Amino acid sequence: MGKKSGSFLSLLTGVALGVAATFFSKKENRENTKKLAKKTVGKAKIEINKATKKTKAVAKKITSKGKKIRSEIESEAKKIKKLQMQRINIRK
Fold it and tell me: Whole-number mean pLDDT of the chain?
């Protein structure tokens, strides 16, 4: 049974290669494929740039929020420290 599936796979591969060879044997098909490939690469580069910009924007936003939260925490810590110092001064 394994032999049959292997030979069937070889047959399908051969057919696919034959179809591709026939398709690319025409100069017009090769040129159209090159144009399509160039167009696809161009679109891919544009999408990569968009994704990069979005990633940078999100990172900037997260960093900004993180700084804001850190600032708030530091402010609260200063208030707590101030209250603790006042309590210590009252006890003296």
Answer: 87
Residue for token pair 């599936």: 5
Q: State how far the alpha carbon of 84 is from the alpha carbons of 32, 72, 74, 75, 91, in Å.
A: 77, 18, 15, 14, 11
- d(CA 75, CA 69) in angstroms, rounded, equals 10
d(CA 34, CA 58): 36
Q: In whole angstroms, what is the distance from residue 47 CA to residue 36 CA?
A: 16
pTM of the model: 0.49
- The label of the residue with tokens 């696809």 reads 40
Give dist(CA 37, CA 29) in Å, integer.
12
